[in-house]
Amino acid sequence: MSTASAVAAHAAASGGAFLAVNTFAEWRDAARELLRAGVPPEAVTWSRPGAADLFSGAPAAAAPADNGTHPKHTTAAPHIPRSLMEMLQRAACFRDPDRWAFLYRVVWRWTQGEHDVQSPADPDGGRLHGMVKAVRREEHDMHAYIRFRERPVDAGAPRFVAWFEPRHDVLPQVAEHFVARMGKVSWMIATPDASVLWDGQTLHNTGPLMSSAADLDDAGEALWLTYYRSIFNPARVNAQLMQSHIPARFWKNLPEGAIVPSLVSQAELGARKIGQVQAVGAKRGATTIPISAEKAQPDREQPSKLDECRRCELWQFATQAVPGEGTKRAPIMIVGEQPGDQEDLAGKPFVGPAGKLLDQVFAQAEVDRKAIYLTNAVKHFKWEPRGKRRLHKTPAQREVEACHYWLEKELATVKPKVIVAMGATALKSVMRKGTVALKDFVGKPVRVDGAWVVTIYHPSYVLRVPDEASKHEAFSVMVKGLKLAHELIERPDPA
């Protein structure tokens, strides 16, 4: 029996265990055995190897000898989805004394059926998302602010050396980034806790080899500082903006950090005015050219995958983008407003309460859901917190317009003969109008870009209607609308 298995068996028998892990792989193996043994989070104490704790003088219960008396565990290893496992692996890099205990609590809750633990609205889910975001930010900062210094040629020594002080344990994945970027050139990245060295073929991991950036010396640094002084424009200097773009903790290890304070001081003492003289004297007057804000935007490469979409801010708060679903050449396309809470977690449209009601509408209208393409005008869930719940919030017009890029792609691929717009938001997106009155289009099909457009209520509206009579009437409108859409498939173009 492995150490992790023995510890899990001991925990199951005695009601407690002490585990010392140092890497995510060690934690994963131990957590798997603990879950198979049904050991709850409160029964396990996690620590790093060699770390002192309050009961360090007491005998540890973490590694009992395997004499064959421990019960054999036959429970199958729990299944953790890949998306959650990737989040756990990244969150494991977050420096926090209780990170291993917290990660085990997350997987324990997931295996107990509490799948909302992956949601940002859940307290543990929110903390998990925050840890992942902080680790990704540290990786980005390390990519951006590492400065390699070239060393004198010496047999066996790396050609380039850099010093960095990361807040989280991101050195291994950052090292892989520079392996791909720097090819066969040898280099080393040193931090206060560990170092990595690339000899051109193999990546070596060691303990700390330097104490600060002062141990570095670069003969070419003087040339770089001369160039930096020459491009520094005192007329456009903005000290507050410089500090917001590059946090203060990075400046001390940047070569230009030694001369920036004096350059900023000179700008404030008069160099700014001198720097403006030549540019102001060369002006021949100014002409105001009227142009819309939309046309003034620079041309940017459009995203090719929905998960990469950053056209509005909703992606930051949603679990994932929810694409359309259904037959790619369906004659009918149904467009809703946006994913709900359950759709956001599942990654599929209309699987929550609104989807169940829509299935009832399909049944009454005798329409096969599998023959229809289902999508939404907005692909990310927009919500606002209300206690532990995430409540739906209507998308703004700018968010509808930003997401119309994806609806156009779906329309071009599916080429539906009939589009069913459910609700005002969907109708605005389909009609490409900022304001529309839903009552003017319900039950009145119109032609838009060669397709029929039928307007019905959104299922969530039917669920919100307080009295049964209004609920029945709204449900009836949806059924009649779907029947009309099915009839319009064969109706010829009026033109």
UniProtKB/TrEMBL annotation:
Protein family: Belongs to the uracil-DNA glycosylase (UDG) superfamily. Type 4 (UDGa) family.
Keyword Metal-binding among UniProt keywords: yes
Family annotation (SUPFAM superfamilies): Uracil-DNA glycosylase-like
Stretches the record annotates as Disordered: 58-77
Family matches, as SMART domains: UDG, UreE_C
Keywords recorded for this protein, A-Z: 4Fe-4S, DNA damage, DNA repair, Hydrolase, Iron, Iron-sulfur, Metal-binding, Signal
Domain named Uracil-DNA glycosylase-like: residues: 323-476
Gene3D superfamilies: Uracil-DNA glycosylase-like domain (3.40.470.10)
The keyword Metal-binding is annotated on this UniProt entry: yes
Signal peptide: 1-19
UniProt xrefs under PANTHER family: TYPE-4 URACIL-DNA GLYCOSYLASE, TYPE-5 URACIL-DNA GLYCOSYLASE
InterPro entries recorded: DNA_repair_put, DUF4130, UDG_Type-4/5, Ura-DNA_glyco_family4, Uracil-DNA_glycosylase-like, Uracil-DNA_glycosylase-like_sf
Name by which UniProt lists this protein: Type-4 uracil-DNA glycosylase
